[in-house]
Description:
Layout: H1 2-13, H2 15-42, H3 48-56, H4 60-65, H5 73-104, H6 132-146, H7 151-155, H8 159-210, H9 214-226, H10 233-253, H11 280-283, H12 295-299, H13 307-338, H14 361-392, H15 397-408, H16 413-439, H17 461-467, H18 481-500, H19 504-510, H20 536-546, H21 548-561, H22 566-586, H23 590-619, H24 622-628, H25 630-636, H26 668-684, H27 688-701, H28 705-751, H29 788-792, H30 803-809, H31 822-831, H32 834-846, H33 855-858, H34 860-873, H35 875-902, H36 906-928, H37 944-947, H38 950-960, H39 972-979, H40 1022-1027, H41 1034-1045, H42 1048-1062, H43 1064-1079, H44 1082-1095, H45 1104-1123, H46 1134-1139, H47 1147-1151, H48 1161-1180, H49 1189-1201, H50 1203-1207, H51 1236-1249, H52 1259-1284, H53 1290-1321, H54 1332-1348, H55 1362-1367, H56 1373-1395, H57 1398-1424, H58 1432-1454, H59 1471-1482, H60 1486-1496, H61 1504-1529, H62 1540-1558, H63 1560-1570, E1 1580-1587, E2 1594-1598, E3 1603-1605, H64 1608-1617, H65 1622-1629, E4 1636-1642, H66 1653-1665, E5 1670-1679, E6 1690-1699, H67 1704-1714, E7 1721-1727, E8 1730-1733, E9 1754-1764, E10 1772-1780, E11 1789-1796, H68 1805-1808, H69 1811-1831, ...
Parallel strand pairs: 8-11
Antiparallel strand pairs: 1-2, 1-5, 3-4, 4-11, 5-6, 7-9, 9-10
Helix pairs in contact: 1-2, 1-10, 1-13, 2-5, 8-9, 8-13, 8-18, 9-10, 9-16, 10-13, 14-15, 14-18, 14-26, 15-23, 16-18, 21-22, 21-26, 22-23, 22-45, 23-26, 27-36, 28-39, 31-32, 31-35, 32-35, 34-35, 35-42, 43-44, 43-48, 44-45, 44-57, 45-48, 52-53, 54-56, 54-58, 57-58, 60-61, 61-71, 63-69, 66-67, ...
Amino acid sequence: MFLFLLCLTLFQVYYSLWRKLLQLFWWLVVAYTMLVLVAVYTFQFQDFPAYWRNLTGLTDEQLGDLGLEQFSVSELFSSILIPGFFLLACILQLHYFHRPFMRLTDLERRPLPGARAPHWARRQDAVSGTPLLQQEEEEAPRDEGLGTAGPSQASQAPEASKWGLVAERLLDLAAGFSDVLARVQMFTQRLLELHVVKLVALYAVWVALKEVSVMNFLLVALWAFALPYPRFRPTASCLSTVWTCVIIVCKMLYQLKVVNPHEYSSNCTEPFPNSTNLQKTEVHDSLLYRGPIDPANWFGVRKGFPNLGYIQNHLQILLLLVFEAMVYRRQEHHRRWHQLGPLPAQAVCADGTRQQLDRDLPSCLKYFVNFFFYKFGLEICFLMAVTVIGQRMNFMVILHGCWLVAILTRRRRVAIARLWPNYCLFLALFLLYQYLLCLGVPPALCIDYPWRWSRAVPMNSALIQWLYLPDFFRAPNSTNLISDFLLLLCASQQWQVFLAERTEEWQHMAGINTDHLEPLRGEPNPVPNFIHCRSYLDMLKVAVFRYLFWLVLVVVFVTGATRISVFGLGYLLACFYLLLFGTSLLQKDTHSRLVLWDCLILYNVTVIISKNMLSLLSCVFVEQMQSSFCWVIQLFSLVCTVKGYHDPKEMLGRDQDCLLPVEEAGVLWDSICFLFLLLQRRVFLSRYFLHVRAELQATALQASRGFALYNAANLKTIELHRRAEEKSLAQLKRQMERIRAKQEKHRQGRAGRSRLQDSPGPGQEPGPGSPGGSSPPQRQWWRPWLDHATVIHSGDYFLFESDSEEEEEAQPEDLRSSEQSAFQMAYQAWVTSAQTVLRQQRQEQTRQLPTGGGPGQEAAPAEGLQDQMAGRRHVVQRVLSAVQFLWVLGQALVDGLTRWLLTFTRHHSAISDVLRAERYLLTQELLRGGEVRRDVLDQLYISEVEATLPGHLEARDALSTASSGLGAEEPLSSATEDTSSPQSTGYHTRSSGSEDTVVEPGTSLLGSRELATGGRAQTRTASELLLARRLHVPELEAAEQFAARQGRALRLLRAGYQCLAAHSELLCYFVIVLNHMVTASAASLVLPVLVFLWAMLSIPRPSKRFWMTAIVFTEVTVVTKYLFQFGFFPWNSHAVLQRHENKPYFPPRILGLEKRDGYVRGDLAQLMALFFHRSQLLCYGLWDHEDDPLSKEHDRGSRKKGAEEELAPLGPQEEPGVARTEGDIQLEVRDGPPEPQDKRRISLRFRRSRRESTEPRGQAAVDAEDQEEDEAEAAAASRRRKQRSRPRERVREAGAQLRSCCLSLAQGVYRPLRRFFQDILHTKYRAATDVYALMFLADVVDFIIIIFGFWAFGKHSAATDITSSLSDDQVPEAFLVMLLVQFSTMVIDRALYLRKTVLGKLAFQVVLVLAIHVWMFFVLPAVTERMFNQNAVAQLWYFVKCVYFALSAYQIRCGYPTRILGNFLTKKYNHLNLFLFQGFRLVPFLVELRAVMDWVWTDTTLSLSSWMCVEDIYANIFIIKCSRETEKRYPQPKGQKKKKVVKYGMGGLIILFLVAIIWFPLLFMSLVRSVVGVVNQPIDVTVTLKLGGYEPLFTMSAQQPSIVPFTAQAYEELSRQFDRDPLAMQFISQYSPEDIVTAHIEGSSGALWRISPPSRAQMKRELHNGTADITLRLTWNFQRDLAKGGTVEYTNEKHTLDLAPNSTARRQLASLLEGTSDHSVVIPHLFPKYIRAPNGPEANPVKQLQPKEEADYLSVRVQLRRERVGSGAAGFLEWWVIELQDCRARCNLLPMVIFSDKVSPPSLGFLAGYGIMGLYVSIVLVIGKFVRGFFSEISHSIMFEELPCVDRILKLCQDIFLVRETQELELEEELYAKLIFLYRSPETMIKWTREKE
């Protein structure tokens, strides 16, 4: 070992000398090993031990320490084997490997000039000479381009070339793998070169802390000063190596047997009780008094340890030190060999520099691998300091806290750098000081510490431990100092960073660490703009620099909310303040941001230090605090989190009212909060954040820009709707006019009139009256046929003659081919093959083959056939094709889902694109430091003059309908969906912020809150602005290209996020409702009611005031809840909480102030949702609805100049879909121009608006303002009168003033409410929509919940179910009330919908919202005595009702549709709508009820039967239309047979169904008996014996103890008994052992024989002298448990035996009655042993087991027993006894073996009760009749079901609905007549249902 240590020491200390002496070292090792082997071996000779003792004078023990001792043969072999192999290895090394090793380790060796690194050789082609692998890569694209090349061409190449290509590919892969390994090796070696010294220092100190001693103190001292002073590190390594070798040698020498510690150990005497403050239990555990003390232990050596285990730690230190030297010398050798120099700035990756940081994500990763500590070292040091405090929590770390505060208060990096060397020196000295405290004084001195000298010293063990003082009872925990050393390590490295960041090399490689971020005016930002995400690195930057702030606030919130203390309240208040004003904070300069943020960091550090100091109370004096100062524990959340003091869980049961908050203590969350606060501070100090600040400032300038775009889009949508309705109605009127004209001609021709001049023109209505006008329904002289019945039946062929003209006028449909969906792709693969689909996909991608119909489609089956034939030959190819097709199908599914999500955000995407482009220009202006002017956006769009040019206008109109961003401007059906915009859920209203402004070009807006664009730009929609853009921004285009290049998964996630962001207010509503469902308190009730009655009804959308109200209310609620969580409140005591547990009317629980776990989770989610929504509103420019006050002041003059122009009536040249608003100007988009009266009102409003606010106001607002002016004049007059009045009237005037003040306050509340509801009822701009279908669906779901969960709405109804209640003809009141109320609301809602009464719907909504919330949260808990949040059914019902409330509010806000056309499920023609519609028709009475209600509340001329006829026709046509659309969407190739899978799948299932129905009764009854049958054994067996008609002789019952089930052994015995009888065995095999029981019937009668004396005498006479037979009847009766199954409870049967006259049995029975004999009477063959108990009422003996029937019955002996109990004849008790005749034991027990049939379980009892025939009659025949209806009489319906094209009929039905809604009732009659005639005329039906050309 000494030679080994010497070698390692020389290698570490003196490398050149080590190389020179290495050969000598090996020779010395060889010689020494030989000497040892010879000595050990010769010592085994007999006389050699004596020779050694005489020669050396040593004892045997001392010789043993030298290694000389005698062994057995096996021990000798093992002790010599290892040294022998070691000797052999040394000799081999010396002779064969020494010289190569010396050459390899020569640092001065250089490579030869011509030597090169080996490379992978590639095999070349013999002809061309190029590598084969390169040829293959070049030919691969050509092969892919051909696509259809067969395998024959590839087979022509020789096999050798293929294997050569394989070899080349393997060589290339091996070369690549080798390169990767080389890079990993270089990277690892570079990391080790930089950080191996830190590993050595860390492990050396860890070993020293694990073994506290004097010798290890030197290691700690060396590395404590080597870390902060790097020049000392090589010396420290060398000294550590030498000293570690010394320690190892000392430890090994101390293990020799010659060393005996008992000779010099110290024994300390125990002190007297008064001379120490140790407890009696602590004295014996003290190091001084528990045994002898070895003085060497204090120095670091101990006795009695195994050598290897004892020196293992120091040996590892030595190996680490040698490894460190190896790493350094290997790197030196590598650089000299490759002639390289070390990378500058201690970099690991050569290309990870500051210049390449922003290139891509790998470059960023490399940069942070190089310089992570350089950039974030200071924060890591701060975090380590906090970690040290949190881990130790004692007196010593208070100094760390003071240093932390001192450093943080410096704030500036330069000031911290000046203080840092002192901090590092303090850490080094403080570490050594604490190590000395752990070491203490030598215990061998037997001197205790002063704080243990007397009981008068008020220090216990816990206090000593907290003060970190040395103690012999409980020594300080030395391992905790490893955190101090880590802090010293980080601080030392940060000192080097402070020195390095001043050098030019580091500044060039890693960048500049500075606090000065504000660039000079006009100086560009050196870092690139990442806001628009042109790469994945930009996305990461956006997440960090823009959204980390809000994550930090969430962490601050959680830090405060999870710990109930005063400190947590400070966190909450700081979080709420920053949440409210965080956006404005982020827009300030760096200094302003850092001042507030540093205050928060200092508060966080102060809390950590305060908790550390309060640990004195929680760890040392916890018992006193818990008994006397519990409020302090609860106020500061005091719990000791450091192990070693006491176990907090053991103290939980001491005082239930003063529980220690174990889960709420510690500084873990404070440390996490500190980490995030430091990260955000570094974000603030980054130049990247300047881009974020500019972006936020530009967003603030666009606070209401999105609102103007939104209103413009809504106006255009309304106009498109109006045009479409007018066009459809005008077209219908023209068609009916032509029909009327032809009808008139037809009638005149038939009447034979000759005067043609009286007939009207072909385009005019006959008779006076306007064309198309609705005339009163009275008979007129020129139209005598004008009555309802005549019109209804007046259909004829001429009604269909104008349809061809109408089709010519109709515009052709857009035949754009849509992209193939995943389902269509799967269907195509189903009908053809996967290879065909893949080939078509490949062709579509390459665009080489034409698409469409023609020969390609006809060849598809042939190609599929070829693919099938090839697939049979190549199974692997088919499997690969299937896998590839599944991959393509999955990609198509993801693409389809992405497109579907993007359809919900088209409108907001367009707005976002416009705002992004405008924000980019504003950001550039802000970054330049100049003033933002109003004309900055003029360069972005084409001017109004250019936009009105004919060519550009046509192009814009053509593109505006094809743009992807026209969500809110698409006509008809799509427009109604898209106007329910993601951000506003479809708020449609007047334009309140988009007024035309005339602004001078040079006007500045710097400091304004919003930048309003001027002129025409505000009246154009977002899609029009996108089309009118003339400035293309490269950054935005690059961002769009990057978004298009992203993977499918990322695009899907992005689409989902956009959909969520666009519908963020729905997310807020959902979270608010969910929080209320979970909390169910009065505090959480406020927001849901406000949501349903304010937010969702707001026009045009919820205002900023609502969202701020919700935010502030949530924050106040959280703070209030937090304050009431403290345990010192009386209602939070343990007794009170236990008494009111699960009681709904506990006052704190009602108010939401109850102390409970997770009290704030829902509020946190609610706050996150609200602030997320606020950020989205700011992003979309929808946060502020009002204009900027600064712009109002500036635009006042321009409005005066442009007033006359703006008030001019709209001319025909203006766009009808654009509303131009100025002040209060509002123009309703309706039919026809505005009235003159409206014009005068508009001019009046404009004149008033010039001196008032520019917000839009209605007539109610104008009247209110007039009233306010009158009140102001009256108040002024009263003040004048008051000045002239006498003093005695001043009191009256004061009362009047107070009354007027109260009146004004009341009006201040009343007028906003009045204006709010007037805006709802009289809004001008409303895009009507129809969501009644969804409201009805929500009501139906609630209806079902009430039916199936009615038990949740009653007090005691939870014990039963609705079926049992109804079966008893009882209707629960709660169920009835809820059912009737729900049904009534559905009927009322339908009536309001049909009458289109918005006012009624509004009143209904208000009443229903308030009533439901009062009922669910106040009345229902009292009724059910269950809290709402514990009633799952009520929660589900309430959630569905909230969905209904949301839909209802949306309906009120948008208004009812002007046209209610058909069923709500018939809007789209797909499988889903078809299945839902068929299910809707299957519900009993639902179709009829809906039709009758529609007929009652809809104005129509049709009778109820005619109405039902139209509804039925429309339903059938819809079903046919869905079928035709399915055939078009999933076509089947011509001439292709049905697949076997379809045949056997569909047909096989039908066959199985029919066969199962036919044989269902037999199978069912068999399964009931065998498989699912339930064993139901008898629970009572009663046997009765009667003689004639007299009193029963014997009655006995066997209960459960006497009814013994059969065991398996008894079953085997029974089987062996009847083994030779096949019939018996067949019967037995039908039963299992559990079906058989044995009833042991007691032989003595259970009842006395109570016969009257006359009957007794009569019996005697009949037995003696009777001439007729007397019947002896044995009856048995079984009782079953019906609860287990079955239908019959009692089963019985009897066996009779006739006693002939003068028979022996009769005479003996008579003797028994007379008392002359007491012998028993033998009755032969009376008792049957085996009985079968079937399901029926008869239990017959088993004939199979008793084949001879009565002859096999058992014979019994009957005897009458008497017992005297008194005197006289009445003193006898009599009873009968029956015994078996030929028995050997237990003759008094009558065994009866009962075979019980299985019964049907109770769940199947309703079917099993019918029996087989009943099932056939009741089920099979009914189902057969139903099935026959599907397969019969199909031919009768062919005419009306096999219609090729039903579009015209569908259009006709919709026209009937349309004219009905527009009150054209005459047209309704005529169209109905046309429909009826169409179904009467097959020829017309055939013509009308042909496919369109």
